[in-house]
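Extended Data, panel c. Modelled sequence:
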Amino acid sequence: MGRKRRKNEKKKSYLILFLLCVAALLLAFFNVNLWQERKETSERLVNMKSELEEMSKKKEEMEERTMKVDAEEEMERIAREQLLLRKEGENVIVISREEEEGEEEKEEKKEKEEEKSMVESFRALLPWNEKD
């Protein structure tokens, strides 16, 4: 019985050893895969950061250009509209228009005319008013 027990214990210990080796190999395999993936992602991260820096520099350059162009266009617009300046070969045409009177302005004029007519009629009634 002692031998069977030893054989069973040896078989169990070999089985446990075998399972531990398999587990260690699986862990090593997955660890290597993770390490490779981490390496690839860190390389991509470095590439993306450099691309981001390049793009931000290009953006800043474009913003500076557009600011200069906008400032020049604004100065040109002011020179054309307010100072009536022109470029060589251009003709300046000035269009002036009278603004239409609003309803309120029309009513105010009517009220003033009515007041004038009332004052004139009152003056006409006064005896010391000389009539020509």
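The helical segments are 2-81, 103-125. This feature is highlighted in the accompanying rendering.
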